[in-house]
Write a structure and sequence with these properties.
- By secondary structure, this protein is mainly alpha-helical.
- The chain has three domains: about 140 residues, Fumarase C, Chain B, domain 1, CATH 1.10.275; about 250 residues, Fumarase/aspartase (Central domain) (Fumarase C, Chain A, domain 2, Up-down Bundle); about 90 residues, no CATH class.
- It has 20 helices and eight strands.
- Strand 1 and strand 2 form a beta hairpin.
- The radius of gyration is 32 Å and the shape is elongated.
- This is Aspartate ammonia-lyase.
Length: about 500
């Protein structure tokens, strides 16, 4: 080995021969091969900090287990643990340099982790980088392990940690919508179905609905978390546990549980668990569901705020930046738009996960790197999208009360509340007359002799229209009154 203190490179050897390594690099020959082989995305595995932390946690749990079972000398286990703690504290993340997209089912990632842990341990103990006679990346750091049980386990740990970050932002966004629901509790508006006017509701009900749908997705995400805690550590190559102590699987699960503060269990069938990617597909599907529903909410915000003069203009989004290089004063809904684009990417990544899961063969799925990258990207982007939407949009939304009031007062949708009392045919005729003449529905009902004004006022009160004061008792449906319907029909003069 070349002395790194006096040369820009050191020389390491793997099964393929000698490799030159930058003198100050904490990675080694296997990582160098991967850097040469996989110049694909330009994104190193360190772009997923939770994956780096998870790899360190798995290596730390393995070191504790090997020491307990007598599979490694105590001083070596202590060095490995010390290095793993330093990595988990945020140091040396930049040494996880292998591209996230790689062949080999994650072998390059595991090798990168083994080499960094070994070299960090050597460095902290005062030894030279690459001095593997004292602590070897494979014989010591990777003892009792294989990429095929380390990588999927680290992936599950990383996804679980990332989901905790996502849930913080997701819950905060849900609460922001709920707060707006309370703020807009008494603001009447016209509901819409198929983009056509429907019956009245409150803006508060609409925003409360947004909060509820986010809450449902929060529940679905939490339901998947326990599935991520079933692991195959101890399976080694294909699930037979070759090279590992028979006690290793149960012991390492216990140490991992202790390090994470949550219960991890060994899969009942390690052969199946080593090749199965079902939990990743389910996780990806749940993220897609959350993203699509969040995108729908953003579509609604864009529609409700459209205008400001020729659109719906029911709400006002906080202005964030100039919206045009040619139209002065134009402001676009850029925050909902960026969240929409995150959702599109999440859906695309879900397709990628599905294809990669299907492409697995026999005892291993070689495409787990793209699966893990896709899911961690989705989780990270969704967390950022939720935070951005909350801070830069939802918390500053205002109701355009004057416009909402004007639309409610001229809406024919209120006639729906009278249908059980005057019959569908009469209500339909009244709605048509109101549209053609621009007159108030209540006036037409009274003039047609179908109901007195006080009764109309009661049945079309905001409380009744929005369901705040539910109908009690039976509703006497009145049969169609032909004469009344005729009176409600607009004349040719009315429509001129």
């Amino acid at each position: 080995m070349t002395d790194g203190a006096h040369a820009p490179f050191r020389t390491e050897t793997d099964s393929l021969g000698e490799v030159e390594i930058p003198a100050g690099a904490f990675w080694g020959a296997h990582t160098a091969r991967a850097l040469e082989n996989f110049p694909i995305s330009g994104r190193p595995i360190s772009s997923h900090p939770r994956l780096v932390d998870a790899l360190a946690i798995v290596k730390q749990a393995a070191a504790r287990t090997n020491r307990e079972l007598g599979s490694i000398e105590p001083h070596k286990a202590a060095l490995i643990e010390r290095a793993c703690v330093a990595i988990r504290e945020g140091e040396y993340h930049d040494q996880f340099v292998v591209d996230v997209i790689q062949g080999g089912a994650g072998t390059s990632t595991n090798m990168n982790a083994n080499e960094v842990v070994a070299n960090v341990a050597l460095h902290l103990a005062g030894h030279g980088l690459g001095d593997y006679a004292l602590l070897n990346p494979i014989d010591d750091v990777n003892r009792s392990q294989s990429t095929n049980d380390v990588y999927p386990t680290a992936a599950k740990v990383a996804i679980a940690m990332a989901l905790e970050d996502l849930l913080v932002e997701h819950v905060a966004l849900k609460r922001a919508f709920a707060d707006k629901g309370r703020e807009f509790h008494d603001v009447l508006k016209v509901g819409r179905t198929q983009l056509q006017d429907a019956v009245p509701m409150t803006l508060g009900q609409e925003f409360h609905g947004f909060a509820t749908t986010l809450g449902e997705d929060e529940d679905r995400i939490r339901e998947v978390l326990p599935l991520l805690r079933e692991i195959n550590l101890g399976a080694t190559a294909i699930g037979t546990g070759i090279t590992a102590d028979p006690r290793y699987a149960a012991t390492v699960a216990a140490h991992l549980s202790d390090l994470r503060g949550e219960q991890y269990v060994t899969a009942g069938d390690l052969i199946e668990a080593t090749s199965d990617t079902g939990v990743f597909m389910q996780m990806s599907g749940v993220l897609k569901r959350a993203a699509v529903k969040l995108s729908k909410i953003c579509n609604d915000l864009r529609l409700l705020s459209s205008g400001p003069q020729a659109g719906l203009g029911e709400i006002v989004l906080p202005p964030r930046q100039a919206g045009s290089s040619i139209m002065p004063g134009k402001v676009n809904p850029v925050i909902p738009e960026v969240v929409n684009q995150v959702a599109f990417a999440v859906v695309g990544h879900d397709v990628t996960v599905t294809m990669a899961a299907e492409a697995g063969q026999l005892q291993l799925n070689a495409f787990e790197p793209i699966i893990v990258h896709s899911i961690l990207t989705n989780v990270g982007w969704l967390a950022a999208a939720c935070r951005t939407l909350r801070v830069h949009c939802v918390e500053g939304i205002r109701a355009n009360v004057d416009r909402l009031d004007s639309m409610v007062r001229t809406s024919v949708g209120v006639v729906t509340a009278l249908t059980p009392y005057i019959g569908y045919a009469a209500a339909s005729a009244l709605a048509k007359a109101a549209l053609l003449t621009g007159r108030d529905v209540a006036d037409l009902v009274v003039e047609a002799g179908l109901m007195d004004r006080e009764r109309v006022r009661q049945l079309t009160s905001p409380e009744r229209l929005t369901g705040a004061a539910p109908v009690t008792g039976s509703v006497p449906v009145v049969g169609p009154d032909t004469a009344a319907i005729a009176l409600a029909q607009p004349t040719e003069a009315d429509s001129i």
